[in-house]
Specification:
By secondary structure, this protein is an alpha/beta fold. Helices cover 41% and strands 18% of the residues. It folds into two domains: 5-305, UDP-N-acetylmuramoyl-L-alanine:D-glutamate ligase (3-Layer(aba) Sandwich), CATH 3.40.1190; 314-448, Mur ligase, C-terminal domain (Protein-Tyrosine Phosphatase, Chain A, Alpha-Beta Complex).
């Protein structure tokens, strides 16, 4: 292969991605752990060669995983982080030392596991899926590094998610709400039952505040497997928070005591909750608690100071301010709307929305309607996207036809929204644009707006 090393690395990554895309996509599921168990067994069960903090729930998983990663690294541990989906590159899903693995290492890891894929495919009624292969790659990369601890985010659900071949020393459940109902169930209780499957015997279950039905299900699972529980609102939680320039300042009641003056450079009460959950998970992992006291407060402060959450109310342009947010269900959108009202003071706000077809579109738009002056509906590039005309029909029902504009292309939609924001802003600097509705939408908008690659 000719060309420079970066060119060769990009070519190798493209080769691997092309092979991975031939497999079942993440939107198509066959609920079993048989395939992934067969694969990791052939690989020597790499997921058992390091302790795991397993992060599940409906919203906030990726950000919480990033916070846990940051704090653990602050204490000098080598951390592997597996998250999904990605915003701009599949390499983001497997991180070492706080950075996505390189294109070269991604390709090398794939080539290491590749010989075993055909063996499993031959023995199983359905070949390994895209996500199952990525999961095995993440486990293998962490074992090869090696890492001191892996922070592993669930892809979907919990019980049948391919990450669940790992046994989390700490299992984290962020708030459970309605999403992926086709696969997980129509009620919060059914969904919580699926997500509770990551809570393993003799582990510590760190539970964010939950709806009563979900809390009951999760606590029943804790009792059944003999886990220890730490609950937001009982054993830990946000004791106080105040808005600050660029984020917020928190006081967190942790498992071992109180952590004061924690600056978090993210917006919204939901991000404060994520920080409290992440800190409790770290405390549980290192053994901090009522009898041992807090972990080093200065280390926690420094770690949270550097936390980022790409695509989560992320400002990518000014005058007008353009925010990108990956909210993709009503619960997540409600948190985004609350954070907008708390941290920003737009006199005029235009929305750009593109969603996937299997989401509660009306629920999301209903939560957006009070804060948007106008909405521009569009499409992202996902094969699962909701066609723009179908989205427009729902938007007209929620907003009224006079507040809805239609642009089939996302780049045109952002440009139109910027023009609408500027036209109604006599006092420059008081307008904004919010691009939201899907992780895919957020990722593509970040690329269009020149956002830095996520770390």
């Amino acid at each position: 292969m000719t060309g420079s090393q970066p060119d060769r690395d990009r070519a190798e990554l493209a080769r691997v991605q092309a092979e991975l895309r031939e497999r079942w996509p993440e939107s198509r599921l066959d609920p079993t752990l048989d395939r992934i168990r067969a694969l990791v067994d052939l690989l020597g069960d790499p997921q058992h060669s390091y302790p795991v903090i397993h992060v599940g729930g409906t919203n906030g998983k990726t950000t919480t995983a990033r916070m846990i990663d940051a704090v653990l690294r602050g204490f000098g541990l080598r951390v592997g982080r597996f998250t999904s989906p990605d915003l701009s590159s599949v390499t983001e899903r497997i991180s070492l030392d706080g950075e996505p693995i390189s294109a070269r290492r991604f390709a090398e890891t794939y080539d290491d596991v590749r010989p075993y894929l055909a063996l499993v495919d031959k023995e199983q009624p359905i070949p390994l899926s895209y996500f199952e292969v990525l999961t095995a790659m993440g486990f293998a990369a962490f074992a090869d590094a090696p890492v001191d601890v892996a922070v592993v985010e669930v892809g979907m659900g919990g019980t049948w998610d391919s990450t669940n071949v790992a046994d989390g020393r700490v299992s984290v459940l962020t708030p459970v709400s309605l999403d992926h109902m086709v696969y997980l169930g129509d009620t919060v209780e059914q969904i919580a039952t699926e997500k509770a499957g990551i809570i393993k015997p003799d582990s510590v279950a760190v539970l964010a505040a939950q709806q009563p039905g979900a809390a009951e299900v999760l606590l029943r699972r804790v009792a059944e497997v003999g886990a220890t529980v730490a609950r937001e609102g009982s054993e830990f939680g946000v004791a106080a928070r105040s808005i600050a320039v660029g984020g917020q300042v928190l006081t967190v009641q942790g498992l071992g005591g109180v952590y004061e003056e924690l600056f978090l450079p993210l917006h919204g009460a939901h991000q404060a909750q994520n920080a409290a959950v992440a800190l409790a998970a770290v405390e549980a992992f290192v053994g901090a608690g009522a009898h041992t006291g807090v972990v080093d407060v200065d280390t926690v402060r420094q770690a949270l100071l550097g936390v980022t959450s790409p695509g989560r109310l992320e400002a990518l342009r000014s005058a007008p301010t353009v925010l990108v947010d990956a909210a993709h269900n009503p619960h997540g959108m409600a948190a985004t709307v609350a954070a907008l009202g708390e941290s920003f003071s737009f006199r005029r706000l235009i929305g750009v929305v593109a969603v996937l077809g299997d989401k509660d579109v009306s629920g999301m738009l209903t939560r957006l309607e009070p804060v948007l002056d106008e909405i521009v509906v569009t499409e992202n590039s996902s094969p699962r996207r909701l066609p723009v005309d179908d989205l427009a029909a729902v938007a007209v029902e929620v907003f009224g036809a006079e507040r809805v504009a239609v642009e089939p292309r996302l780049d045109d939609a952002i440009e139109t929204a910027v023009q609408l924001a500027e036209e109604g802003d006599e006092q420059l600097g008081g307008s904004g644009v919010l691009v939201t509705g899907s992780v895919v939408t957020a990722g593509e908008a970040r690329t269009l707006l020149g956002g830095q690659a996520p770390r």
